[in-house]
Amino acid sequence: MTKSTLRSSLAVGAALFAAAWSMTARAEDKPAAAPVAIGDYHMHIQGPAVTADLRRMKAAKPEIFAGMSDDMMNERSGADALAVLDKAGVRQGTLLSVAYMFASPLMQPAPADMAALTRTENAYNVAAGLASNGRLQAFISVNPLAANAMDELNYWRDRPGVSGLKLHLANSGFNPRADADIEKLAAVFAFAGRNALPIAIHVRNAKDYTADDARAFIDRVLPGMGDVPVQIAHGGSWGELDRITIDALALYGDAIAKQAKGTRNLRIELALLVVNDKTDPVLAGDYVKEMRRIGMDRFILGSDWPAIYTPDQYYALLRTQLPLTPEEWAVIFGNEAPYFTHPRVSPRKAR
Fold first, then answer.
1. pLDDT value for 14
2. Which residue range or ranges hold the Amidohydrolase-related domain (predicted)?
3. Of 12, 22, 136, 271, whose CB has the highest number of CB atoms within 10 Å?
4. DSSP strand pairing (266-269 vs 299-300)
5. CATH no. for residue 102?
6. What is the pTM of this model?
């Protein structure tokens, strides 16, 4: 048992003792109940081809998967996603396709049938969303630098069940300091903006990310989305809270305050912003200051299931690590991703 768990247990015991001792205890003296989350907007399922390749990758480079759940090595379905949502009492979720894996530089040797595998995995994700009776929305995915990226986007843009596009710049080998990479990413954002296709994006490409890297994305890429929703994964982090994450969040906040193009429906999603119960309290406090400056209505929940945690596990951890008030947590837990609030209407052709 951790120290924090022990303290929680003692606090609960004391509250029970006090209630038994005096029947006049006021309801407002009782600890606030944990809020119930409406959604988990960062979840992953995967078909057999991705699963087989991940197992091969883990056998060759086990260090890449250190600390990750063994469930990542198993095929998962929409029914599995619904089961973990039900366990957490969560109503809805977003399935972010991992089809980008087939065009990742991490996938060596690169599969000769990369484009076909990408299509099949995206279809697997979309089918799961369509079968969920509206509880799961499905995002397709591509590597924005890959030769098949625009073909894949054009294939899916008018098809039913496609709620958005997932991009993972670290997995894609993206370099924010390379003009050619910026231009390719900007072209994908412009396509998504024209076709009303929301984007969920893991922006940070590496641990040595800089403020200039974040500015390049905000100034040169994000405007292409116009008012179409954009979801910044992991709270703008690499998958952990550090000083660079706070600096990036501040830049998003500046852009929002200026009503910069592309920010009207910008949301910050909090999946794996923290990864254990030892978050630096100074960093956590500074991150929360930026959250308050931006406004809690801009933040949504995600777990990145099954990378490390299930939704119920991660949401409980997150509440212990970020020093928000119960009222602030209630807002965040009740926030819906804009593409759930206003489902996508796919255009018949690019404008």
1. 34
2. 81-334
3. 271
4. parallel
5. 3.20.20.140
6. 0.89
